[in-house]
């Protein structure tokens, strides 16, 4: 009886260990893809540029002030005071270009224009 029971337990243990190993591999791949994914070339380009705050303010007045207020203190859109303390530069770029929180529209500025806007947002 003891030998037949061990024949059942060993294959079952091997099967469980196999599933655990497969799960660990899937999690590891997910983590690698999350933390080491290639950066969007647009974002990379914007991050290499030095924006002009005055031009950024003009861009903000034309494209953003209708929802965020003339000084970014919020109207329909949220208050952007200290927004650079809440979001990384990359996240700010993605927020502007994807409009990930409706009703914010997508805005597709040139990298230079985005760098200017980012420079202004960092002053709020």
From TrEMBL:
Gene3D superfamilies reported in the protein's UniProt record: Cytochrome c-like domain (1.10.760.10)
A Pfam family annotated for this UniProt entry: Cytochrome_CBB3
Domain (Cytochrome c): residue spans on this chain: 51-124
Superkingdom: Bacteria
Transmembrane segments: 16-36
InterPro entries, per the entry: Cyt_c-like_dom, Cyt_c-like_dom_sf, Cytochrome_c550/c551-like
GO molecular function, one term: metal ion binding
Entry keyword Cell membrane: no
Keywords: Electron transport, Heme, Iron, Membrane, Metal-binding, Transmembrane, Transmembrane helix, Transport
Name of the protein in its database record: C-type cytochrome
UniProt source species: Synechococcus elongatus PCC 11801
């Amino acid at each position: 009886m003891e030998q037949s029971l061990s024949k059942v337990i060993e294959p079952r243990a091997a099967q469980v260990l196999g599933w655990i190993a497969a799960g660990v591999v899937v999690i590891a791949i997910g983590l690698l893809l999350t933390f080491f994914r290639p950066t969007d070339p647009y974002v990379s380009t914007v991050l290499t540029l030095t924006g002009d705050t005055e031009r950024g303010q003009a861009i903000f007045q034309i494209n953003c002030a209708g929802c965020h207020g003339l000084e970014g203190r919020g109207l329909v859109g949220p208050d952007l005071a200290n927004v650079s303390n809440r979001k990384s530069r990359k996240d700010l770029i993605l927020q502007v270009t994807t409009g990930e929180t409706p009703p914010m529209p997508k805005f597709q500025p040139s990298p230079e224009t985005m760098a200017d806007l980012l420079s202004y947002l960092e002053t709020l």
